[in-house]
Amino acid sequence: MLTRRTALLSAVAATALSAVSARTAAAAPHPAELVRLTLPAPSGPHPVGTVALRLVDTARPDPWITAQPYRELMISIRYPARDIGGHPRAPQMLPGEAAGFAAVNNLADVPADKVDWAATRTHAHEGAPVDRGRGPYPVVCYSSGAGDPRSLGTTLCDDLASRGYVVVMLDHTYDATAVQFPDGRVEHTVLPAEYDKAYPDKKRITALLKKTVAVRVADTRFLLDALPRALPRELRGTPDWDRVGMFGHSAGGFTALQAMHDDRRIVAGANLDGVVAYVQDDGDSGNLSTVAVEGLDRPFLLLGKDGNDLSTVPSWNALWRHSRGPREGLTLRGAEHGTFTDEEAMVPQLARRLGLSRKTVVNLIGTVAPASAISAERACLASFFDRRLRDRSDTGLPGRVPEVQPFAR
């Protein structure tokens, strides 16, 4: 489930998190010398608007910080906009989030202190008025990989919004590298410290993996409870709460399907390269989740990196065999685990500017051409949700996407 992310996070001393700002400021070159990154523009017909919201679950003490009597979350909502004039492009990460991302660097062999992570702008415009002409729109929630911020799924989320979806990007506080709240507070991940406490006891590591997913699923269910009432006035009536899907990457893909299993409000789910068992390696057997053991009766998509399919990922095989609803399985040839995040757009730029080795690039995002990978992922997600949330039958795969191969069954 956590695979590469767990290994990377566990290598980071927990004490580094308390010194994020000081260490980043001391190590970083002058801002003019830092590498700045761009993200690809969405491919749909709509411009994209965005708002960020803080949600508080007063009925649930925080499971990671036991002294806190409530659970506090940040989300970003992407939506089709009517007019973006005068509305600035939103940052991919706020300054505190960028500093936290640099401190717990999930991009192995990338010198994080040479990148201006806070400078990247998305293609979503802050506070832009919603386009109500074609709404209400289906809702798709997004959960990132363990230790990743919600912002690392920006490329795919902005694209879905540009195609006529309301997309809700969810940060799992104290799991994501850093979450910045409206008052300026930044809450950092506790996963490195939790993993270090559990290692090398396999039972304790399994318990940590179970807790991580359980917290994420509870966050998702609270989101579905709270958001219809918490929406800003200008967005009310825009989401169609009878058409809710969810997707995620790695542990976020596990979260999407487990939440779908536990909550019937989610009618379709897509898992991007996430096992659905409490294991550290994709090929490990055992420790299956309830979604893998009991299956699903609604549509789901498994989209894996090169080599991940029903024959190599035991938990996917169990889920497939036990499910009764429509199932779709695809492999993205030449892809690595990070291919399904914004890393696919970022790493090639970092390689050019920082002289990263070919080995480093391949380890992070595989051998598939970045533009082809991004186009294929967008097409797979749009096709799946168009068919499952909009009843469209003319967006099938994989014939038009040569990089994608159906699972052998």
UniProtKB/TrEMBL annotation:
Keywords associated with the record: Hydrolase, Lipid degradation, Lipid metabolism, Signal
InterPro entries, per database record: AB_hydrolase_fold, TAT_signal
Entry GO MF terms: hydrolase activity
Signal peptide start-end: 1-27
PROSITE patterns per record: TAT
Any Pfam family hit: PAF-AH_p_II
Name under which the protein is recorded: Hydrolase
Source organism per UniProt: Streptomyces hyaluromycini
